[in-house]
Amino acid sequence: MKEIEDNQHRQWESVFAEEPDLYGTEASGPARNAASLFAGARAVRILELGGGQGRDTLYLARQGFSVTVLDYSERGITAIREKAKGLPGPVTALHHDVRRPLPFADGSFDGCFSHMLYCMALTTAELAELSREVRRVLRTGGYQLFTVRNTDDPHYGLGIHRGEEIYETGGFAVHFFSRAKVVQLAEGFDILGIDEVEEGELPRKLFQVTLRKA
What is d(CA 13, CA 109) in angstroms, rounded to the nearest whole number? Predict the structure, then answer.
């Protein structure tokens, strides 16, 4: 699985070079929802996993949050640093592989946001470890909001089966989630919501998951 994930990241670097604003510059719906959640909870220190081209990172920083963003793409991290200059909230952008422990002390953040990072070609075991790491770096009562493509998505079951609920089409592998898998990965959190949302022209079928560290 690691080889699939590494190949996927190399392809993403190539796509990023050709289309630096592939997903546009407007914040995603889940990022707007996360900003509302964090503001209501008076959260200030936010960790974003998988910042991509930075559209959600920049949005959160414009809302005044202090954002630390991680991404596997060095090109992406460099671009986010350039785009973030002069924003109201400080942005720290770091190159990191989420299959490794998060490089932060316990309780470093008030909130964590990730948009479709969990549905990359990561095994359930890797995701469980990542979830434990997120829980570790959140303060008690801290919030996490993440999205994943679910098993009602039109692409579910298509392409090459790579094990578990992972299917590869067009060179990109996606891990699809059932509600049961979301609950499995939420150990140590209170589940505040597993909401069905849509995105894009297909449209993609997603779960927007809202958790609070118990």
Answer: 28
What is the DSSP-derived secondary structure letter of residue 96?
-
CATH no. for residue 118? 3.40.50.150
C-beta of residue 5 within 8 angstroms of C-beta of residue 33: no
Return the DSSP state at 62: H
Q: Domain range holding 85? A: 2-213
pLDDT in tens, 1-21: 556 555 555 544 544 444 555
**Would you give the distance in Å from CA 197 to the centre of its chain?**
15
DSSP secondary structure, 99-115, as one string: TS--SS-TT-EEEEEEE
In the chain, the amino acid numbered 114 is S
User: How many domains in the chain?
Assistant: 1
CA torsion sign, 146 to 2 to 174 to 57?
Answer: positive
* Residue appearing with tokens 């022209």: 201
SS3 string of 133-172? Answer: HHHHHEEEEEEEEEEEEECCCCCCCCCEECCCCEEEECCE
| Tens-place pLDDT, residues 24-81 | 679 999 999 999 999 999 999 999 999 999 999 999 999 999 999 999 999 999 999 9
DSSP for 14-36?
HHHHH-TTTT-SSPPHHHHHHHH
Helix (H, G, I), strand (E, B) or coil at 183: helix
- DSSP letter at 52 equals T
